[in-house]
Amino acid sequence: MKFSSRSKINKVKISIAFGGFVVMTISLFAAFVAVSNWFNEHEVIFQRVIEVKTQSPIRIEKREMMSPIVVYKTVEEMVQDSPDVKRAKRIVELWGGKNAAKALAVAKAESGFDCNRFNVNSNNTVDLSIFQVNSLWMKNYPLEEIANCDRNIEIAYEIWDRADGVVGNGEGDFTPWVAYQNEGYLEVMR
Predict the structure, then answer these.
(1) Range 75-189 classified under CATH 1.10.530.10
(2) Helix 85-95 crosses helix 149-162 at what angle (to 10 degrees)?
(3) 19, pLDDT greater than 90
């Protein structure tokens, strides 16, 4: 009997030892994978603790190109450069202050400040006059008004004023104009 109980104890010890070996092997493998992954992402660099070197007191390096400074025209310059000073002054009067230069530039970029300019679009609508007001606005304004240069300016102001979602606040938005969306108006302001 003693022999069989001793045999059972030895089997248990062997099972425990084998289980410990398996656990230790899996742990070592997991540690190896973790260390390997860390070294895939990191590099150990040995540096000199102290480095003495001689160098010239002046060094010349090529500079990175900075973007050029853009100087925009003043509203007064834009009005004087306009082929139609009377209408340019009307635009400044309507838009006033901070939006006048942008409005002048949008009109110039859209039509070249040409009251007779029209453009047929790919969707079969037509852009008319100085601000190139689209014929889709005929639901709000008669064609004669859209085509009339002075009224076209006023209609453009009304479109601009409501484009920010609030009518009458004088804080409109130029996004209805392609020349604003593609920033073509900026070239006119230079």
Answers:
(1) yes
(2) 20
(3) no
